[in-house]
Amino acid sequence: MFAYIVRRIVATIPVVAIVALFIFSLLYFAPGDPAAIIAGDQASPADVERIRASLGLDRPFVIRFAEWSWQVLHGDLGVSIFTNLPVTKMIGQRIEPTVSLMLLTLLLAISTAVPLGVLAAWKQGTWIDRLVMMIAVSGFSVPVFVVGYILAYVFALSLDWFPVQGYTPFAITAPWPWLRNLILPAMALGLAFVALIARITRATMLEVLSQDYIRTARAKGVGQRPILFLHALKNAAVPIVTIIGIGFAGLIGGAVVTESVFAIPGVGRLVVDAILRRDYPIIQGVVLMLSFVYVLVNLGVDLLYTLFDPRIRY
Q: Which of 93, 64, 79 is nearest to 282 (CA)?
């Protein structure tokens, strides 16, 4: 098992290196002259050259990439062009709302989708199964921003149960204001994730429930609940965990839209503002950080396989 863990960790190194190379290349492959775009139409040639020098565009690509990689390895993601603040500091100021939103979304989605998928597989062909599949299809079909606007109109503007927008920092003594600001964004962001996990859970559970050992357990008089959650769900866990890891990328992208809809001052809003202003150091830093998080999530999923499937340990 230790050798498997080491192999998986080593395998992530070239992935991270390729991602870093691609992200750094965005500055060079962007259409037009990035320095002229940032400087604006009224800028003088000297201003354009100054911005080009600050971005490193006047030096060879390989040398600049090596310097940038060395800075990243030391925790330096550069300096914002417009605010002149370190990118790491700006991300640190925005990281709490994004992490809070994604953790709450994961908690709500997994705790809702897995039981729904198990229930749909157990009640295959009934109205319960059709209802769960209808929810899953709706979750895939409706965009995140549409769901967000509907939830905001119904529960915030009409019923006045939750605030329309904004974010309250987490406080251990009074967590309700923090949670109250995040419930609607988490519901909007998690609907598609619930649909994805529920469909995969149902399909995998149907396959497992048709196995011989399940019929043997029923013949021995094992109850329905132990069969579903102790025997079947554990053996169906590997595909479910896999789809959770794959869907995490969509969760990151959806967080950008959700933060814009509900005016949450998170990393998503930061990168949207940076794209509008062509602030390339912030774009590179945020995309690199999110890509690294995604790689770590997939590494964690690979390691979780060893808990659900003992054959992988050997």
A: 79
Within 10 A of 191 (CB to CB), how many other CB atoms are there? 25
pLDDT tens readout for residues 59-93? 777 888 887 788 888 887 777 877 778 888 888 88
Cβ-based burial of 90 (10 A; exposed 0-12, middle 13-18, buried ≥19):
buried
Task: Give pTM, 2 decimals.
Answer: 0.79
- CA dihedral (112, 117, 122, 125) in degrees, to 10, reads 120
Residue 166 near residue 264 (C-beta atoms within 8 A): yes
CATH of residue 152: 1.10.3720.10
CA distance 191 to 16: 30
> How confident is the prediction for the chain on average, in pLDDT?
79
Q: pLDDT by residue (tens digit) across 281-310?
A: 888 888 888 888 888 887 777 777 777 666
Give me the domain span that covers residue 156. 88-313
DSSP alpha helices (H): ranges in 210-279? 212-219, 224-226, 233-235, 237-261, 267-277
The string of pLDDT tens digits covering residues 192-239 is 888 888 888 888 888 887 777 777 777 777 777 777 777 777 777 778
Q: Is residue 12 part of a domain?
A: no
What is the rounded CA–CA span in Å between residue 205 and residue 201?
Answer: 6
Q: Tokens 């993601």 map to which residue?
A: 77
Establish if 271 belongs to a structural domain: yes
Q: How far is CA 63 from CA 16, 22, 284, 291, in A?
A: 19, 15, 17, 23
- Tell whether the model's pLDDT for residue 51 goes beyond 80: no
- Kindly state whether residue 159 falls inside one of the protein's structural domains: yes
Is residue 197 within 8 A of residue 111, CB to CB? The reply is no
Rg (CA), the chain: 24
Q: How many CB atoms lie within 10 A of CB 21?
A: 11
Domain count, the chain: 1
44 is a domain residue? no
